[in-house]
Amino acid sequence: MTTDDCIKLSNKIFLKTKNITSPLLRNYIENFSEEIIKIVDNNSRTKTVNLNIIDLLRIIKRNLEEILNSISTKRNSTTKLDYDLVFIILFENHYKQFKVLRRELDNNNISYCCLFTKEGEYHKHSKEINTFYLYDYCTIKNLIGSCCKLIKSNTKLACTKFFKKSLNFSSKENSQVKSHLIKLNSKFLLNLYKSESCLKNLKSHLNRKAIFFKAEGYEVRNLINLFNNMGIETMSIQHGSIGKHHKFSNLNVNKYLVWSDKFGQRLIESNFKSNYIPVGCPAYDSYFNIDRQSDYEKKTDLLFLPNPGVSETPESEVEYALKMCCDYATRFNKFRLFIKAHPGGDQKILEDYVDKLDTKNIVVLDKQSKIEYHKYLFVFTMNSTVGLDCAVHKVPIIIVLSHIKYLFVHDYIRGGIGELATSMNDMIEKTNKIINNYKKYQSRCIKYVDEYLCCRGYSVNTIISLLASDDK
Asked: What torsion do the CA atoms of 449, 450, 452, 457 make, to the nearest 10 degrees?
């Protein structure tokens, strides 16, 4: 992305939305930050410019504050990771996916460890064997060195024409844009510099592969690039649904293990340049080894699984869907509605809303509880990967959104495993349609699973074979 491209895109975003926190802006800033690395690594001297000294002092102050916060909680580790496989764990659900593989890793005597990137997640599992925290390997000397690099980088950023140009905004908007640029550039580069130091300190000659449960996002891209540069093969195991999206463009992972060829093709459509391998999804293996026959005509329980409200689906849509589902359950009280917060969502918001309704047929489940999809007549959802979970259990879905423009999971509609409801009348019509044609929807669920999920029942073994292989 060139400087002119950045300016044009920022103009387009700001003139239309006036929103400096839009996901699109964050994405282009991350791409721009990748270009800044090249500037930092360039040994040529910075041209003399009239840089406002106050702006520069603010840049340095931000950088130093972040470094000091890191130093205040510093612990050092010198243990080398003498394992064949290094699993990178960013979130709790990544660790859950790893645990599905762990038994077969042990059965095959494969040497492995887990490297956590979040301190909170690490402490939950720090007493388990072969678990480590990435930033325990960053010394105070490394942190100070990272800070110096960061100051140099942000100073050079402030000297670029892109940073100095007016961008056709008001003075206040210019200040916001520059502040946001510095903040995101610092976040990206400090993570890169710290991670680089840590991996150099923990790397062992035994390390063969680094395994991730996603490949997009600046933190993961940084780590993948660093592992690649150290000659360690990188692999990513699909964790959620993959659609055509710019965030999958030019991913630098060596191999992407996907649920089916369908999702692999989505990567290609998104400008993915590396190899993908269809392997199925380990989390679904057990579903195909148990016969769960049930009489749908006797089911009266419904389930609502909202989005967290912090991604492409905004919080306002979650509130809209919550109200719609609760209104439906209140109107048709022969059903019981169970609501389970997204792992990244706020359960208390759901509980507070339901408490005000003073009804006994709506229950908020603990967000850590296991979902038994086969017990529900149908599932209310939004833009979520649970559509595939439901299809595996032959349970139709209702996607609840205020408008079709917010719909991202078009595959569910095209595959005929559910319906979109944008109003109460729409919801009543669509739920009745599903109930009256339930077997037809179940048949579509079977067909959908055949298309979107391969290696059904033996995905774990397929993945373990690839991880154990020496082929690159």
From this structure: 80
Looking at the fold, whether 220 and 128 belong to one and the same domain comes out as yes
Alpha helices in 110-256 (DSSP H): 119-125, 140-158, 161-164, 171-202, 218-229
Q: pLDDT tens digits for 345-377?
A: 888 889 999 999 988 899 999 888 889 998 999
* Residues 38 and 113 grouped into a single domain: no
Residues 381 and 392 in one domain: yes
Residues 115 and 32 grouped into a single domain: no
* Residues counted in the chain: 472
Same domain for 214 and 106, yes or no, is yes
* Of 441, 348, 310, 335, nearest in space to 21 by CA: 310
Final residue of a structural domain among 174, 193, 212: 193
Alpha carbons 383 and 344: distance in angstroms, whole number: 14
State the sign of the Cα–Cα–Cα–Cα dihedral 71, 77, 82, 85. Answer: negative
Of 126, 275, 136, 266, nearest to 195 by C-alpha is 136
For residue 102, the surrounding DSSP H or E stretch is helix 92-107
What DSSP string runs through 352-412? HHHHHH--SSEEEEPTTSPP-GGG-S-EEESS-THHHHHHHTT--EEEE-SSGGG---HHH
Helix, strand or coil, per DSSP, at residue 340: strand
pTM of the model: 0.75
With contact defined as beta carbons under 8 Å apart, do 318 and 384 qualify? no
Please state the domain count of the chain: 3
**Beta-carbon contacts of residue 40 (< 8 Å; ≥ 6 apart):** 149, 152, 153, 156, 189
Quote the domain boundaries for residue 396: 289-452
Q: Is residue 80 part of a domain?
A: no
- The order of strands in the sheet holding 112-116 is 131-133, 112-116, 85-89, 209-212, 233-237, 255-258, 275-278
pLDDT, tens only, 51-81: 444 555 555 556 555 555 555 455 556 677 8
Are residues 129 and 215 located together in one domain of the fold? yes
Q: Are residues 178 and 245 in the same domain?
A: no
The widest CA-to-CA distance across the chain, in whole angstroms, is 77
